[in-house]
Design goal:
two-stranded antiparallel ribbon; about 50% helix; 5-stranded antiparallel sheet; single chain; Glycosyltransferase; alpha+beta
Length: about 350
């Protein structure tokens, strides 16, 4: 199917139900959500899949996913790069943006459910995770992308990874404010990180070739609220022709003839964040041609060889389809999470009301 044009208030629930079932079928009894049946699980994509379940109203399944992740957390607040069940699949590193993403998922789930018990239950997990992440922030504001097997920082930072952490810090702050927990330094750390991303490009890609060839470095600062307003629109316009293939989607890497569905969904939300609703609807309409009969979606399409590649249909790609659909239709109370910055003021009436309800 192609040409699915979405508008506010018209979430295609029946059409997307097989996509939800695909994620549920891949989820293990423990709550773990691997990339696909028989695949490994990484913390970031696991959370992405859990958010897809929350959007679909699969609240208990999403809750089990977060409980599984909380149970796998290391003492220092981090997670290894990947797992297979209870076994660690990759012990070479622990990535900061993977670790921070738990805050985004937990806040997303809370926005949909307003489940105070869930928020309080996951608070220690979020608190420890952010403690680990911020321990790797430099005096210049950027956050190291990972530590190695021995816990030694890798010594460089990624624009995309730090942009993701920037959104996670927004969400972590909102969780803390809602629960009445004093984590004022998180807001300061977020400001320092944003300043580094906007004003200190030399703090990123110091020890390897620049990652600007990847589309995520282009649109993630818009998607996560680092860059907003007219600057966001100008940023997206500046490299549109490098990354976007009309009628197909968004390239993963500018020099590779490969469009990827998850990145295309994230671009949809970045366009909404920049106020370009018409192009967001258009890009999303292209993506249904990559849908399979079971509701899953291919990772991407190789244009030169005219083939679907790799031979994978990841759960997190299915979740990205659900997240973009929610953002376009404003179906759930979390639909604006990646399209706007909503930083709670500790002294606001809304924050006080949330704390009273939870207490």
């Amino acid at each position: 199917m192609s040409g699915l044009y979405l508008s506010r208030g018209l979430f295609p629930e029946e059409f997307l139900r097989p996509t939800v079932e695909f994620i549920l079928d891949c989820q293990q009894d423990s709550g773990e959500i691997p990339w696909f049946e028989g695949g490994y699980t990484d913390p970031w994509d696991h959370v992405e899949s859990a958010m897809g379940l929350s959007i679909a109203g699969e609240i208990e399944a999403a809750h089990r996913a977060y409980r599984w992740l909380a149970g796998m957390q290391l003492e220092d607040g981090s997670w290894w790069a990947s797992y297979r069940g209870a076994e660690i699949d990759n012990t070479t590193r622990r990535e900061t943006n993977f670790v921070a993403y738990i805050a985004t998922g937990v806040w997303h789930h809370y926005l949909i459910t307003q489940d105070d018990d869930f928020l309080r239950e996951l608070w220690p997990t979020v608190d420890r995770a952010m403690g680990f992440v911020l321990s790797l922030q430099s005096e210049h504001g950027e956050i190291d992308w990972a530590v190695d097997a021995n816990g030694k920082p890798k010594g460089d930072a990624l624009v995309t990874g730090c942009s993701s952490i920037y959104k996670s810090l927004e969400c972590a702050h909102n969780i803390a404010v809602t629960l009445g927990e004093d984590r004022a330094h998180w807001r300061l750390s977020r400001k320092r990180l944003g300043d580094a991303l906007r004003l200190k490009p030399g703090r990123f890609d110091r020890t390897w070739a620049p990652k600007s060839r990847y589309s995520m470095d282009w649109f993630y600062p818009v998607l996560t609220g680092v860059i907003q307003g007219k600057e966001a629109r100008a940023r997206l316009a500046s490299r549109w022709d490098e990354f976007v293939e009309d009628g197909l989607g968004c390239r993963c890497e500018k020099q590779e003839p490969w469009v990827t569905i998850a990145e295309s969904c994230e671009l949809v939300m970045a366009l909404l964040a920049a106020g370009d609703h018409a192009r967001a609807v258009k890009v999303y309409s292209w993506l249904q041609q990559w849908r399979c009969k079971d509701g899953s979606y291919w990772t991407g399409y190789q244009m030169v060889e005219d083939l679907l590649w790799p031979d994978e249909k990841p759960t997190w790609t299915a979740a990205a389809i659900l997240l973009a659909a929610d953002a376009l239709t404003e179906h759930t109370p979390a639909s604006r999470l990646f399209c706007s910055v909503q930083l709670l003021d500790e002294a606001s009436d809304e924050a006080r009301e949330r704390r009273v309800l939870i207490d």
